[in-house]
């Protein structure tokens, strides 16, 4: 399934431009300025699917950025707003787009920001050119993660076309599952259930795989993000028994 191409500001009427702001210190001030230019602003902390642009201080690996990346939206530096106000109209985006070679005045302060910015630009161009398929099409996913991470990951994956399979009761036929994202300490699954998933044909991965897959830079290595079940801890009785045997051996040598 192809995503709809993000249009330039010049192709929208101002009332159809919906800009989400992810810049805490200046958010309210920038929102007021954008509204004066006729754009609708979105101030929610979570990603709003209706938005057409995201204004941010820097790309970072959070839900709003990753959802915008999936959609191939315009990700613009805050200087876009200030320059538009000076021109009294919403300007063309390219010179203010994170990762765009034309945006020469926007400097990435570290390699991670540069990686995220470049990925956002590549994705936006791909969608603009009609090559932006949903990145998670045909994925059927189990999220065995802490509760505070599940909803955010669910929104990112569903935004990209994935279907979520409940992990409260594993399906009898595990062949319907294509991907499993697991946190070894807070998965909510029994060890035997995790072993069954590892024995299935599904890819069992760490949650860090999702942003790495989306960014997909030269350092992406799927093998490093595969989930491996930690060794089972010995029970307290076994541990005490082992310790006792070790103590006896030491005493005998003495």
Automatic annotation (TrEMBL):
GO cellular component: centrosome; nucleus; site of double-strand break
Stretches the record annotates as Disordered: 229-254
Residue ranges occupied by any BRCT domain in the UniProt entry: 26-98
Record keywords, A-Z: Cytoplasm, Cytoskeleton, DNA damage, DNA repair, Nucleus, Repeat
Any GO BP: DNA repair
Subcellular localization: Cytoplasm, Cytoskeleton, Microtubule organizing center, Centrosome; Nucleus
InterPro entries, per the entry: BRCT_dom (IPR001357), BRCT_dom_sf (IPR036420), Slf1 (IPR042479), TopB1_SLF1_BRCT (IPR057595), TopBP1_BRCT_8 (IPR049936)
Main location as per UniProt: cytoplasm
PANTHER family tied to this protein: SMC5-SMC6 COMPLEX LOCALIZATION FACTOR PROTEIN 1 (PTHR46677:SF1)
Designated name of the protein: BRCT domain-containing protein
Protein's organism: Bugula neritina (Brown bryozoan)
